[in-house]
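REQUEST FORM: STRUCTURE PREDICTION
Request ID: SP-0412
Submitted by: Lab K.M.
Chain count: 1
Length (residues): 336
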Amino acid sequence: MKYSFSRVFVTLLFLCALAGNCFAAVDYDQLFRQSSDLMVQGDLDGALALLRQVPAPAPGEDASAFVSSRMQAGRIHAAQDAPEKAIAACQEVLKLFPDNSEARNFAAALKEQLKPRWHTVLSDILRFLPVLAKGALMTLLLVFCTMLVSPLGGLLIALGRISRVPPVSGFCWFIIWFFRGTPLLLQLFFIYYGLPSLGITLSPFVSAVIGLGLNYSAYLGEIIRGAIQSIEHGQMEAAKAIGMSYGQAMRRIIIPQTYKRLMPPVGNEFIALIKDTALVSTIAMVELMRAADQMFNTYFNVTALVLAAAIYLVLTTIFTFIFEKIEYRAGIYEQR
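STATUS: Completed
RESULT:
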């Protein structure tokens, strides 16, 4: 009889404890619902007071309600522009659970907000600059390779354009017509994505140099042709009168006089080239624009784009200064 009574008594105690836990859980759920209702009504202080009623868990006790209450309190403090109190709420969680990633990351983000704005901008610049500098070097390499190819190609196109041999003149006219009449982006797409269907596969760098070189050769061809034809025709006749051939007259008399007239438009083309290199990012070339885009898509930080714009401005400014000096030196004997 005693055994049965003891057994019943223990069973009742167990059921009471289980019921108490259930009621506590229900109380927590109702507390969270009430705090949510207060937040909807705009009473953030009342919601904080309710959340603070959730006590710290005892060892071995379920801590989910405590963690949820403190993280919600931290978010409310952050919304009230009180990052110090929000960090304190996160620290309560980290004190019991140092590996809680939500509290750790939230606290780290709040600490970043407490830093001065200039400190944040400086850290962003130091983080993005190495990657953007590497992309800028690739941009400069593309520019220099195009500057080596396009003037020579432009000169050949210009000489062919003014040639009296109809097939040569017609072919050069077609090159100018096609490459000036279609977008550079389309030309890059055709070289990199279209040629493989014809059995010709090129690397992104080679495709970029070919596309930029052909496009700028066409533009420079018209510029050089205009500069050559602006020289008085009598100078060619005078050169022939003293026994020079057509090639000698062009090389020694006509073309040297075009340098002064070529510098301004050629300088403008090469400055535009610096910006047009951004188009090669569409054919998997990681240059300045592609690097900035990757940084922005990774961190969603506009500082990467602003820094890329600053680098482009620095490069164009340097090239503008260089071409102004070359223009001055080329026309130094024509100064009045």
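NOTES: Residues 2-114 form a domain with the Serine Threonine Protein Phosphatase 5, Tetratricopeptide repeat fold (CATH 1.25.40.10).
Reviewed by: T.R.
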